[in-house]
Amino acid sequence: MKLLPRVMLIIISIIFSSDAISEIRINGFASIVAGQDTDNKSFINSPYTDEISFKAESKFALQISTDLSQGLSATAQMIARGSNDFDTVFEWAYLSYELNDSHTIRAGKLRLPFYKYSDYLDVGYAYPWIRPPRAMYSLTFSTYEGLSLLSNFSLSDWDISSNIVYGNLEDTFFKTTNPTEGKLKDIYGINIQVSKDWFSAYVAYFGTDVLIPTSSIETVAQITESVSPGNGTKISLDSDYGDFLGLGFTIDYGNWLFNTEWSAISIEESLTLDTEQWYTSIAYRFDEIMPYVTYQTTETKRKIAAISDTLLPTQIHPAQPPLNIFLQSALDGQMFEYNAYTIGIKYDFHANAALKFEYNRYDDIVDIGSLGSFDNPASSGNFSVAIDLVF
């Protein structure tokens, strides 16, 4: 049995122990979402088709926590997603210990704090949209196993908080294109947030060693190694350093709500492209009704294959192109860029529930590759309705 399941069993045992059960707190959230693509073409990462679905983005979750006194507590969150046939999984499971009034250390399965809404990633009620902007919130993983140090303090009139993390992750990556079991080793990083009155901002940086042996990249790496010994490792994802830089700010002034976030992702010495993504969203409150509009974009950065120009043998490629041209073609085949426009309305019809209507329009800009593109490069849209609630 792996270490993490053992740790999770210990945490659950603590929560439901006879000494702790009187202090148990249970809350939860849910999203019931219906959506449908409005065109005959569908975005490759869209959860919808031209048939309406009530399953793709619906989810139900329970969070259970207990105070064990003297600063120690345990928390577990279980979630069932429609995209996973409503199979229940533990999203979080960790122990917390308050070192003092300003610092708390946590250990277990935790959320990676990449973004502004990372802590509420699945809680649709916590943000205006039906889902956070996909261009920005594009990573297919959001948790890790390890340690976290939370700190909170004030400086003049500013409230400042930080989250320092260290750990590892074993998961299935590239789920929508080329599912591959892989690892992120020695994840480390920090998210710092500042706020004052109606303004808040954050900056986040994370680094890790990436080990994800995808079949397509490994094939190219083997070809490269056979033609130019020693250069195959510059292609494969074999413990190459990857990093994430993100920042954003929010203005919540009067009835206006403005959000913007930006991030950049890169992996050194590999057959992957650097990406940049950002969004801007503005909303206005009319009592219980909040209309909003969002613009988002993501694009890859072209990388030059600065490797040997040795000709490929005919048994590998009949045309015998130079290795660097072959690799450049493989790099360019991953390029993509798209913009998206969102218009929607959030209606707080209940103290703990909201009804949302949302339309998204995607415009494919670069159609060289297939990652993040449409089946047929063009524009595509989808419409969705959701009820988000907390309890």
Please write the string of helix (H) and strand (E) elements.
Answer: HEEEEEEEEEHEEEEHEEE
Strand tally is: 16
Q: Roughly what percent helix?
A: under 10%
Strand content: over 45%
- Name the strands of the widest sheet in spatial order: 1-2-3-4-5-6-7-8-9-10-11-12-13-14-15-16
Radius of gyration, in angstroms, nearest whole number = 23 Å
The CATH architecture assignment turns out to be Beta Barrel
Supply the number of helical segments: 3
Mean pLDDT: 88
**Termini gap:** 34 Å
> Which structural class should the secondary elements be placed in?
mainly beta
Quick structural overview:
With about 400 residues, this protein is mainly beta. Helix content is about 10%, strand content about 50%.
Notes on the protein architecture:
- By secondary structure, this protein is mainly beta.
- The protein has one domain: Porin (Beta Barrel), CATH 2.40.160.10.
- It has 3 helices and 16 strands.
- It has a 16-stranded antiparallel β-barrel with strand order 1-2-3-4-5-6-7-8-9-10-11-12-13-14-15-16.
- A hairpin with a 4-residue loop joins strand 4 and strand 5.
- The chain is globular.
- About 2% of the residues have low confidence.
Topology:
Blueprint: H1 3-15, E1 24-37, E2 59-67, E3 72-81, E4 88-98, E5 103-111, E6 143-155, E7 158-173, E8 180-196, E9 199-211, H2 215-227, E10 238-253, E11 256-267, E12 274-284, E13 289-301, H3 323-332, E14 337-350, E15 353-366, E16 379-390
Antiparallel strand pairs: 1-2, 1-16, 2-3, 3-4, 4-5, 5-6, 6-7, 7-8, 8-9, 9-10, 10-11, 11-12, 12-13, 13-14, 14-15, 15-16
